[in-house]
Queue: 2 jobs
Job 1
Amino acid sequence: MFNTIFSRKSIREYTGEKISSEDLEKILEAGQAAAVGRGDYESLLLTVISNQDLIDEIEANDSKIMGEESHPFFGAPQIVLISVKPSDTEPSNVEFASVGCIAENISLAATELGVGSCLIWGAIRRALGNEELLKKFELPKGYFPCGAVTLGKTNVKFEAKKNRHQIKIKYID
Ligand SMILES: Cc1cc2nc3c(=O)[nH]c(=O)nc-3n(C[C@H](O)[C@H](O)[C@H](O)COP(=O)(O)O)c2cc1C
């Protein structure tokens, strides 16, 4: 497990090939096993988007908003969109955190299988204002897309590396 944790990294280069359905299933199961605030699993939904036209449309929306050509999914052939049905008008900190836990589990499972993944929040947030695009996510009423994880084959090598990032730690004895 520690090897996988220290090997995980955001992959932004994909071959364009989809992963096997067996690997996809394992990765989704790992997402489903995540910790979720209040144990409210019913309020969460994973949507696997493998439709290239829809992926292109999200990217086109992003390019329009960014004012320059944008490829927020880096050529990944699939994304897992993570949506939540907020208990209030907008998702709360607990609901966003639950989405993050699911995304991390997906990313760790992908790493374990040598599959490329990257958490994508920006392009999903920027899609929220585009009603036509949102309809294409086919979300049940009341669901709100919070983030996504790219999935795809990659030639990038995973290598367990500690201390790649520094989050400060303070001890109070
Ligand atoms: C909540 C969250 C949102 C993120 N959104 C994006 C994103 O929109 N686009 C992107 O390329 N990376 C995104 N990332 C990936 C981070 O940039 C990346 O995890 C961080 O720079 C550390 O690099 P590493 O994942 O390779 O360890 C996101 C990560 C998190 C946790």
Job 2
Amino acid sequence: MKYYLWTIGCQYNEWDSARLGYLLQKLGLIESKQEDADIIIVLACSVRQTAIDRIFGKIKSWPDKKVLISGCVLEKDRAKFAAKNIEIFESGDIKHLFEILSEHFDNRFEHFKLSEFYSLLSEQNTQSMYIPITIGCNNFCSYCAVPYTRGREKSRAMDEVVNDAKTLIKKGQKEIMLLGQNVNSYNAGRNESGIINGGKTKSDFALLLEKLNDLPGDFKISFTSNHPKDMTDDIIEAVARLPKVIKQIHLPLQSGSDKILKAMNRPYTKKQYLDIVNKIKTAEVPIKITTDVIVGFPGETEKDFQETVEVFKKVGYSIAYVNKYSPRAGTAAHKLGDPIAWSEKKRRWKILDEIANKK
Ligand code: SF4
């Protein structure tokens, strides 16, 4: 039996895709091109409508295949997939995947027990550079579907993360990347002496970086993504001080205009953002700054855009991921429509891309 995995979107989906691929191969399935596959699994992304539309377009060319969807899928799209007889499973819900596979594909999975599925997955967790530390998000940026598709933020226990890192390092992994929609709000609910949740002296994320840095071995630590509102001084200080932490911080700006930031439900101002940048730039050692930005958000005037240009010139990003706004049904910003022409979004995109990426 052959399978094809189609992965769209962020590192989280890549991580899920790697573990699913590993699981399927251990079960005896063979990876193939999509035209030869018996089963197609799509790790979907709902950040843009176009990605979901592409999946619907492709499904028509797979009438004889078993198609499963996982990843980020909005409620309204779930109903549409279900109407086409396509099953959706949560990537963490391995029991459901086990049931689907057992139900649809002869007897080959019958001798497997659910516990064996789990042990194969924990074995796979040692194959990738990624270590998820949080999943979901509480921030509800008005343009983003993640809180609806991945749910509220949950953090993994610190010991569990450290154990994953130990295993990766033992296997010779040279870089481990901590993953989450908002890693710097990582909250392990610690209850260690002197550091008690609610009255803590150091952010959980800074402490996690320290614990990982203290592990013996020749490896580096990176992390993504962050929210400016949770970028505390101790995290910046930890990045600068800890030798195994890569000297780079991803600090998504999204817009340089306070008016647009408010409409995006991003709870910081241009000044507060630049204050954080200043702390990073004046740290003990040089730290690169990278960012994400959206151009053409509804209501973004030329004046608003020029404020973003100003921030770009001031910060001097190492890399900037510039995105042209596209509305997502189900998000708060959807009701604002999409009044800015695509050609204008392209013009703004080009200006920022040239400042940041074509130096
Ligand atoms: S911080 Fe905002 S953009 Fe990032 S995942 Fe959460 S809601 Fe989406």
